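In line with agreed milestones, work has continued on tokenised descriptions of protein folds. One protein thus recorded appears below exactly as we store it:

>
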Amino acid sequence: MIVYHASPFIIEKPDVNHSRENLDFGKGFYLTTLHDQAVKYAQRFKLRGKEAFVNKYELCDDFNSLEVKRFLSYDEEWLDFVSACRRNADSSTFDIVIGGIANDKVFRTIDLYFSGDMNKDEALQKLKFEQPNNQLCIRSQNAINKCLKFLDAEGI
């Protein structure tokens, strides 16, 4: 499977140590199968006066020895998981997490939920009408080493 990562850098050898904390699925190397989504994200770097690249990788199909979590919708389990990750309170040991991204519209709902201005039921009611975008977070260096191969990068 082909996956993409937007960055101000060409990243031939990704690692989880250079990842940020408190993101949707925790600390890890974030990818998408959607080229257009990666390009749109890369354009954000250009707006900040930085270079922008879409790095292209091949992701193996064999996750047998890895612990993988898939979220198929913006449901209660997804909301609880993202909440824990964004508070740096996730204790799961998943190597790879796949599911919807908290885009601007979804993030607004999550932000209202985090601030206490919306309860969980209200947040879930709003989220159930959203179609998940696509993100994949590789959270272990072992999974990166085993499953991800750099192909090339395009400047944006």
